[in-house]
Every structure is written in C-alpha cells, then in structure tokens.
Amino acid sequence: MKSNFILFFIILTAISSQSYAQNSEMSLLKGNAKDELGDYAGAIREYTEAIELQPDFAMAYFNRALSKRKIADYEGAIEDYTKAIEIVDFYTIAYHNRGIVYALLEKMDKACADWEKAYNLGYNDSKLLLDEYCY
Predict the structure, then answer these.
(1) Are the C-beta atoms of residues 117 and 95 closer than 8 Å to each other?
(2) For residue 108, what are the contacts with CB-CB under 8 A and spacing of at least 6?
(3) Which of 3, 17, 94, 114, CA to CA, is 20 to 30 A from 86?
(4) How far apart are CA 119 and CA 111, in angstroms?
(5) Residue 109, SS3 per DSSP
(6) Is the Cα torsion angle 27, 21, 114, 122 positive or negative in sign?
C-alpha cells in the first residue's frame, strides 16, 4: 500500500512538472506575441509569469531582456541577460545583446568584454562590433 502511494506521488509530481513547463512555454509564446504587437509591458508580464513557473527558463529571461531594452529599462535588461547567461553559460546572443546594452550605457569596457566572449563562443556578428568599437 505504501509503495502504491509513493508511486502515485512520483507520477503526480512528474505530471505537475510537465504542466508547469507547458504553462511556462505558453506564457513565453504569449509574451512573444505581445512583444511583436508592441505591448512591451504585457510581454514583460508574460515572461515574468513564465519565469515564476520555471525559474531556470533562460529563454524567458532573454526575451524579457529584449522587451526591457525596447522600453529603455537598460539595467533591467542587463539583469535578465545576466540571469540567462548564468543558466546557460554559452548563450552567445545573450552576451552579444548585453554588450549592446552596455554600449547604450556607455560602458564600453563591459560591452567589448561581452562581444569578445560572444565572438569566442562562435557568435560571428559580435566581430563587427568588436572591430568598430573595441579595437
């Protein structure tokens, strides 16, 4: 009897985890749609919901950073790009984009470091920015 309860609990936990992942992906998609429509505040709310459901969802942090950048919340964008990079340390476009935000804030040493990292990880678009602003 006890082993049946444990098995039931394990199955229930697995189903709940899958449901959270599906719901977080749905929030991400809704956020993407709102961002495309120019509803950046709505997009940020959807991405935040996705993150609350799945705290290690790097793409939700990345997309929220994109929306924050569009409303000139540069510090918030940097925080989200940084979190995405902490989750996926080879997230090349997150390094690249965080570098752009640093450049917008005139923090060129940090911008160049991020573009260098992105380029070294294989994101070739960063080379253009490195050549223009860093060398």
Answers:
(1) yes
(2) 102, 133, 134
(3) 17
(4) 12
(5) helix
(6) negative
